[in-house]
Design brief:
The chain has 467 residues and is of the alpha/beta class. Helices cover 31% and strands 27% of the residues.
């Protein structure tokens, strides 16, 4: 195929890549997007979206088995695993088609194939081992994403030991499940399967679950999960996995140094991600890789002139919305726009869609103390909120951390129903550099869950009304 020339070539069509390509085209750049598999990437096809569809199903299953709380009665409630999975896959498929439409609408040329750097300003594209094109670009943006990390002694086989992909499309529900890793991915799968009636055990190497969260929130989450019947081991190490007929025998070393033996049907590996830096042509370039991720500056520039990188293939936090933001700021900086700002990762909200949900933005209480900040901390419990009680969701809390001297909102941490929808309020407050006084004088509607956000601010300064 003849050479194709573009202003910008994006390699990878996930939430970073396709958003980046659309914004580049909007800015007047002739843009190409190279994608080897699915537009929308892991997030849309095998991550963010289909997992939320599954979690919605498990939430419904929980409600159906708690109908007495609301005055209803239903007998012999059951579900069809195949239909549960189909709902999740159909949701992903619908959005993939939407991305295709958006790229076409914005006049982005989509090139089907595997792209790799092939000299200055060139991306070589292959499909099924055959050359598709040499695509020339003045600016090349790598958005190749990441994949699940494997453990050396516990290789995923797609049968007994699952990655997120297999865990998303079970042919039948296991009776007993071990989840290794308690970050957002691990706890979402643990929550889904537990709410679908599976006996779930979680094993985490560090001393608490959801280790990226504020410790108080992590502790609250653990108590909540254990109260529901989930078994959680922190400070634990999986010593050995032996496949058996229809399952596995797992030797687990607990925090107390004792060895426990578990019989499980399946294991979910949720121990982090590895950047997709192989076979993308970076050997022999000035691109630096650290711990499988590409190093970039504040404008997403790599060490190789004219080559940039965004999303999960670069540094943390490894979140879809962070990848999209990086894609936009990258091309806006290339375009020379004046109001572009480097990404402040401290202002990237994190959300975990387990039950109860967890959401946060900014510094934890400990991080603020470690930074030498003199702080004020506010809290408000779900049980003190009328809307939460009406919903039958009295379990949760909202926590805020302020700089005592300036009133700056340093961080916000939430656990409970719908907190993933609430956290953006504190995100906006941080972006606007809102102080505690402005938040206190903001009128929050009643009755809503958002009132707890107001009360938490008030509590930090000894002014809480309803608790």
């Amino acid at each position: 195929m003849a050479e194709q020339n573009y202003d910008i070539v994006v390699v990878g069509g996930g939430p970073g890549g396709y958003v980046c390509a659309i914004r580049a085209s909007q800015l007047g750049f002739k843009t190409a997007l190279v994608e080897r598999e699915h537009l929308g990437g892991i997030c849309l096809n095998w991550g963010c979206i289909p997992t939320k569809a599954l979690l919605r199903v498990s939430e419904i299953n929980h409600i159906l088995h708690s109908l007495d709380q609301f005055g209803f009665k239903a007998d012999n409630v059951s579900f069809d695993v195949a239909k549960v999975v189909k709902h999740s896959r159909d949701t992903a498929k619908t959005l993939t088609q939407g991305v295709t439409h958006l790229l076409k609408k914005n006049k982005v040329d989509v090139i089907d194939g595997h792209g790799k750097l092939a000299g200055k300003g060139t991306v070589a594209v292959e499909k099924d081992g055959k050359k598709v094109a040499d695509v020339k670009g003045q600016h090349i943006i790598l958005a190749t994403g990441a994949r699940a990390r494997q453990l050396p002694n516990i290789e995923a086989d797609g049968d007994v030991v699952w990655t997120y992909k297999e865990a998303m499309v079970p042919k039948k529900m296991p009776k007993k499940l071990l989840v290794i890793g308690s970050g957002a991915i691990g706890m979402e799968f643990a929550s889904f399967y537990h709410d679908m009636g599976v006996d779930v055990t979680v094993a985490e190497m560090v001393d608490r679950i959801l280790p990226a969260e504020d410790k108080e929130i992590s502790d609250f989450a653990r108590k909540s999960f254990e109260k529901k019947g989930m078994t959680i081991h922190t400070g634990a190490k999986v010593q050995e996995v032996k496949k058996t007929k229809g399952g596995a025998t797992v030797k687990l070393e607990t925090a107390k140094g004792k060895t426990e033996e578990l019989q499980v049907d399946n294991i979910v590996l949720a121990v982090g991600i590895v950047g997709n830096v192989e076979d993308i042509g970076i050997d022999g370039t000035k691109i630096e890789v650290e711990k499988t991720h590409i190093k970039v500056d504040e404008w997403q520039r790599t060490g190789e002139p004219g080559v940039y990188a965004i999303g999960d293939v670069v540094g943390p936090p490894w979140l879809a919305h962070k990848a999209s933001h990086e894609g936009v700021l990258c091309v806006e900086k290339i375009a020379g726009l004046n109001d572009v700002h480097p990404l402040d990762t401290n202002k990237v909200p994190g959300c975990t869609y387990c039950r109860p949900q967890v959401a946060s933005v900014g510094m934890t209480e400990q991080e603020a103390k470690d930074a030498g900040r003199k702080i004020k901390v506010g809290r408000f419990p779900y049980r003190g909120n009328g809307k939460a009680l009406a919903m039958g969701e009295s379990e949760g809390m909202v926590k805020t951390v302020f700089d005592e001297t300036t009133g700056e909102l340093l961080g916000a941490h939430m656990i409970g129903a719908e907190v993933t929808e609430l956290i953006q309020g504190y995100g906006i407050a941080q972006t606007l550099e809102t102080t505690e006084s402005e938040l206190m004088h903001t009128i929050f509607p009643h009755p809503t869950l958002s009132e707890m956000m107001h009360e938490s601010v008030l509590d930090a300064y000894g002014k809480a009304i309803h608790f």
